[in-house]
Specification:
Structural class: mainly alpha
CATH superfamily: Heme oxygenase-like
CATH architecture: Up-down Bundle
Mean pLDDT: 97
Number of strands: 0
Bound molecules: 4-amino-5-hydroxymethyl-2-methylpyrimidine
Length: 206
């Protein structure tokens, strides 16, 4: 029996919970989050998404052609997302040339290293990264202004459906993966969970 994404979520429920439930998100929901905290997240997440877009391109380069449709759709959404980040930063007069904080840099290093792994490993990590934001922004429930559009961006039903397709593609890749590749996919999943938690904490500390 090959590893599946659902198995990872079940086996590592505790780690996944810590990756997706954080006071930062809870306080966006209550409106208590402070501008310095939110703006730190916004700048650092823009810098993160730039590197995530490179990861998406490298995943596409490693993927079977049957998986192109879903991945190209995701890349199109990233085009909009990067421009949207620039708009949000401009509204708040934020400097997007700010250096990466150590946690953001560590997460970006992890992503830049992933393409040395085989496709199933990359696909599993990519799915986990997208699911973390889908669930993280969705679980607290509808958010008040000015956070509504942030929660909607990753929590909307279309994004949930996209993440489900990523899961199917990852599972398909894992079905023909070796024992060693499955272990690497598991390790990559855990690393995403750890880095997601650290990224929220970084933002929370402002
Ligand atoms: C830190 N994880 C982080 N930022 C994001 N934008 C996503 C995941 C989803 O792409």
């Amino acid at each position: 029996m090959s590893l599946t994404c659902q198995q990872l979520l079940q086996t590592y429920g505790q780690q996944w919970q810590e990756a997706t439930v954080h006071p930062f998100l809870a306080q966006c929901k209550t409106g208590e989050i402070q501008p310095v905290q939110f703006n730190t997240w916004l700048i650092q997440d823009y810098l993160y998404v730039v590197e995530f877009t490179r990861l998406a391109a490298r995943l596409l380069a490693a993927a079977p052609v049957q998986h192109f449709d879903v991945l190209l759709g995701g890349m199109n959404a990233l085009k909009d997302e990067l421009n949207w980040f620039r708009d949000k930063a401009a509204e708040r007069k934020l400097d997007l040339t700010t250096p990466k904080q150590p946690t953001c840099a560590e997460y970006c290093d992890f992503m830049n290293h992933l393409p040395t792994m085989t496709y199933p490993v990359q696909a599993t990590a990519f799915w986990a990264i997208e699911l973390s934001y889908n669930q993280g922004w969705q679980l607290p429930g509808a958010m008040p202004e000015p956070y509504t559009e942030f929660a909607d961006r990753w929590g909307n039903p279309g994004f949930t459906a996209y993440v489900k397709l990523l899961e199917q593609q990852s599972d398909e890749g894992l079905r023909s993966a070796s024992e060693s590749e499955q272990q690497q996919a598991e390790a990559a999943f855990l690393e995403v969970a750890r880095l997601e938690k650290a990224f929220w904490q970084m933002a929370y500390e402002g």
